[in-house]
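Question (not urgent): is this output format expected?
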Amino acid sequence: MKPRGLQPRSFFCALLLCASIGDLDPGGLCAQSRRKHLDGNLRCVDLSDLRKALPLTIVSTKRILEQSEAWEKSTWNPGQQHSSLGYPSLVRNDHGPGADGKYYLYFAHHDPTSGIGCAVAERIDGPYRKIKTLEPNRKHSMVLVNPHFPGKKGDPSHFSSPCVTWCEEEKLWFLYFHYYNHFHGAWKEDPDAPGQGNQMTALAVSEELSSHSWRIVRKEVLGKISVHDILPVLPTTKAPWMESESSYHSVQRLPGGDWLAFLRGTPVKGLPTIGFATSKNGREWAWSKNNPVLHPDDGGKGHRGIYRPGFVAYLGKLRSGKRKYLLVWTESPAAGDVPQPRYGYTTDFIKVVRDPRGHARWPAGDGLLSPWREGNRLYIFAGKNLHIMKLPTSSR
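Got this back:
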């Protein structure tokens, strides 16, 4: 809703820019410009030196993923000509043993019997080579293989939507992913298990990224209600907005050290909406009491279709001392599922002010958006593609 007397669009956009950039602490920004940016492997991309709002456009797009291995095809209906390959998550291997400075791109598809794949590049813009081509003795490029692989027609098993980040305290890489829970009927009937447990988010860990060896966190006592003893670190909830599925989440570390999960919740009836959870260790989470935060009826006049989390960016400190963040998510129109990126601003992940310029003009995919910054370029991995955006900063 526009304030009275501020009808011209350009004036309103200028006012928002003043609110989102101009009220940042100048001393804080100067200090930030003299230091290194936040570690990109923590997934909260540092945009604290922006001179104006994040552009709605990109300068180029390139395809980085193509379907080339048998596991990347659906086993639900083997004859179908369909590819859901994508769901990228990007980190640079500069932590832990075997750190080689290369870029590791994790990906999946959302059909049976997907696992989590990996491709590696020397440069941020690729080319990304799947690890099967780098290690000829490998049978495939999966680093997490679904136990039902190679699967069969009608089996819904899959691992998908990877999200990788670094945990400095444990000196471990964390890989969040969602899995189909074959025991969701038993989960639903268990009085101690929240929600319906159809799809939930789990965690795998690795000491050495280049080893391509990951361990899924399991809990044996869950064997009768969670398939393969998998421990869902972000399970479904009793709250209706995430009662059916807890999946496709974007997880990051904020500048203060807290973990933030940018959540996509799926109800039993209705469309997915967006909320948040916080953690001190990335393993045990507390859901916001205000969930869902972003949805068609949140007062922001957003689209009426599916809402998907994208990524979180740090904009710097306000004069009040509060940290300000940029949220990027996607909204689909009610008439068709075409995800359209939208920007918003927040200090508390409760109240979000939408950017009045409207939706961004670059294509997104079904899963999270994985950002990586180098100089004045922001690299956004979305679906099968890599988008490159020029940032309005003084750096090159």
